[in-house]
Automatic annotation (TrEMBL):
Coiled coil: none annotated. The keyword Transmembrane applies. The keyword Transmembrane applies. It comes from Chengkuizengella axinellae. This is ABC transporter permease. It comes from the Bacteria. The chain crosses the membrane at residues 20-44, 156-175, 196-218, 254-275, 287-306, 351-373.
Amino acid sequence: MKALLKFELYKIFSQKSVLIVFALILLVLSTLTLYSTFSSSFYYGKQEMISAYKQVEGKLSKEKYERQEQEFESRTKKSSSKEDLAYGSALIETMSEYEDIEYYDNLISRIEQDLTIATGFNYESLLLQKLMLEQIDLNETYFHKGPEKMMDYVSAFGYMITGILILIGLSSIFSNEDVTGMDQLILSSKNGRNKLVSAKIITAVFFVISIIGVQLLYNWGIYSFLYGNDGWLVPLQKSSSFMLSPYSLNLFEYFSIQMILHTLFSIGFAIFVLLISNLCKNNYHSIIISSVVFVAPMMLSFFNLIQMSNVVQVAKFIQIDTIIQYSYTYLMKVDVLFNRFKVFNFFESPVLGSIAIPTVFVLTTLFFTWLLYRTYERKEVI
């Protein structure tokens, strides 16, 4: 088994196409990121931005808001230096956070009113939402651009890069043996089938963890260089992508969960790709089918066809937009599980989507794993 595992690892990591594509993607992404950042009129330099936020960070209050508003008007009129522009930007962001506090207070008040007339599952879900929102504390502000950019990387680029490399590296892992005739030798060997499948699964998991690990280092490196590494303890709602999130997490807690779930969903997609590769006798068929499953949700979303799916139903109950929302592609972003309050009705009790969906996903992946072993066992020697 150990020798077989080493052989499978060698086959995967010796693919020049994977290494070349990975290196090119990171090179192009680095070039675009650095160029767009340094050429942006809203980027004033890392030290200037950190220094500006140091002047406005801390507890938020009405008195502080009024004082900052006066300072903003006076400083922006006097000078247009990088330091003053950075300070003005920090003040604008800080002042907008007062509106966020008011929004959450009003939301809790509306939920309390709705609770007086709600019953059953609706009552339980509203009560859960209220309890979650009450745990959020937005009364402090700190510079958090670095961590926020690292989170955004996963949902903007990371999921796509991981998916592309899985397609390139794993789509032909079984079908290639059918093409070369190596499968006949393996199938005729004693106890070779289950060991081979296990070796390929372990190799796929290691491959996924490796490419995510490299991206994690890249992600941390480039955004720490541009924005620094401060602000991990800021509430999740300070990030513009999670303004409506009911989860009382800080950025570090969410980023940790994001990376774990991104890895979990990516491994699930890798298992699915292995299954398709096992079922196909042609490399091109395997790559095309797996690519369609991954790319179709992105294409539908890009062309706004997802909006048309409101009138189209599958099996009269399941809407296409629901299928897209919970596809491998969207789940690998992770943010869809945490950016809004989402619950499922489980025997009249609300279950958070961030718990229910990964649970169902794990069960589905286990089923695909069993199906992979089963279908390979049933292959016959010709």
